[in-house]
Amino acid sequence: MGNYLSAIDDEWQQAWPPKPTWSVDDIPDLGGKVAIVTGGNSGLGRLTAKYLALHNCTVYLGCHTLSKGEEAVAELQVESGNNSIHCLELDLSDLESVALAVKEFRKREERLDILFCNAGVMGPPLEMLTKQGLDLTFGIGFVGHAYLTMLLLPVLLSTAKTTPGNKVRVINVSSSAQAWAPAGGVDFGLVMDTDERKARGTSMLMLTQTRWALACFTQELNRRYASQGITAVAVNPGNTRASASRYTPTLTRWALDHVLGFAPDPLGVLTSLYAGTAEETSDMGGAFFWPWARVGHARDDTKDEKMGSLLWEFVEEQGKKIM
């Protein structure tokens, strides 16, 4: 009962956060830095890219549909006055596409300072799977991002060696839903195309497991690479009117639009940008940030080293399917 009440209290504090003390105007000059933002052609990803570009960052939008990505690039270049905005074709539901996107990025750039793992899908029909046969929510939100991060480790590590302070950052966009994941965080039998999943799986269960996995993977990434200059953090961006997806139930969408949701610009990206750019967060590896731009915490078991290792190995095994 205590854990349940604690989760409710945490949820309340994140749903109605205090006025922020940090703003997008506090983003430092990012000239010379390179960032990737997944889901960068729309929603919170596009807003994240906009504010990075406004502060002179070279930004790559990771986009499922190339034409939409190129359209967003053209618009953002006009809005920001920054022509160093580019598109990467990136389908996180297909690990082969992830590998190709990384290969293309490495052709264009020799450094990567900030990786925003922002893309996701909420509430798709359970019969929808990734190219490798995983639940779509879990496959895009967690596995695709984790695999992307793993493939980008060489350029992240080499960038850290040449950066003042020797720091690069990985920002994993989780949410308060991580607190409602099942015991143990992830039931691997439910995220693959199994009879168990068909019998017990629900859209909410897939969402909570995905958000928990992102928080747990962040801890594992930090354990493995903090000493080599990678600052990995997870964030809850908060409830905004950009939080819903095309699969969001009508009632939930109405609640986000009219009751729970705040205007997304700039609040919806404030926490991610704080974690990814503020000088004071550069050494906060393993932190979980709450809205708006403040240090919070995830569920205690996201720090479980055994599960962190299992998640890492699970992603590696999925990656072997395309080799």
TrEMBL record:
Signal peptide: none annotated. Gene3D superfamilies: NAD(P)-binding Rossmann-like Domain. The keyword Transferase does not apply. The keyword Transcription regulation does not apply. Pfam families: adh_short (PF00106). The chain crosses the membrane at residues 136-157. It comes from the Eukaryota. GO terms for molecular function: oxidoreductase activity. Belongs to the short-chain dehydrogenases/reductases (SDR) family. This is NADP-binding protein. It comes from Dacryopinax primogenitus (strain DJM 731).
